[in-house]
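A common beginner's mistake is to predict each chain separately and then try to dock the pieces by hand. The better habit, illustrated here, is to supply every component at once so that their relative placement is modeled jointly.
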Amino acid sequence: MFKFFEPNKIFSITSKAPKYVLLLFIITLSIGLTEALILSPEDYKQSHAVRIMYVHVPAAWISLGIFSIITFLSIIGYIFKIKNFFLISKSLAPSGLVFNIVALVTGSIWGKPTWGTWWAWDARITSMLILALFYVMYLVAWRIYENNDRAFKITSIITILGIINVPIIKYSVDWWNTLHQPASINILSKSSIHASMLFPLLIMTAAFALFSLLIFLMKYNTELIKIKNKGLDRL
Amino acid sequence: MINEILLMNGYGLYVWSAFAFTLLSLALLYIVIRVQYT
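With all components supplied together, the output reads:
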């Protein structure tokens, strides 16, 4: 049996947060857009097309991050039978999928002036497309099986299979000769990106992370309301 | 100045399309989740 938790107690905390997160998101996004579209310099090779990177890269990072969190929570939730972890995972997935689609579409828009093509069956791009399919399968599984033990099992399997793709996405540019450029930012070694471009990139990443938090809180609260409406004071 | 921001040496169409698509996607997701929430 899955462990119980009290929706009323959690809802009293999470229902107040969205308006503050929304305000913070709007402020961060405004700074990010000003930096990305006006203040940051153009690239000596890519010219102004480099500005697409300020939405493409953060969107890809967030979608990969969210899928990793979903997988971690699903595995822990399934092992220790914590139903709340599944609700958190389910509430995180919509923004993960949208950012995955944003990364694919903006990458395609960037590809046209830079590579001369909208799409290439390149290892990085194809593996990102596969991640989007895993997101779709995950959300469809929740639609089909609703909130029951079978949904927990099926969605856990989908995330475990999907997470195999995450390191492939990350290292595809190193393992294969891809059209996609290698990573410009490394946590462990020196990044090849200039500070004037790194700043808007990090601001936009913060804005997208705040947006994911906002969507998560709203979706999570909706799930809690559903539980309350079913007349269950415990899940 | 305004022309440079809009046209971006011929890349304006691509840059603005990418940003417009991103912002529209976020707005759409927000509206959908908001409708479910209220």
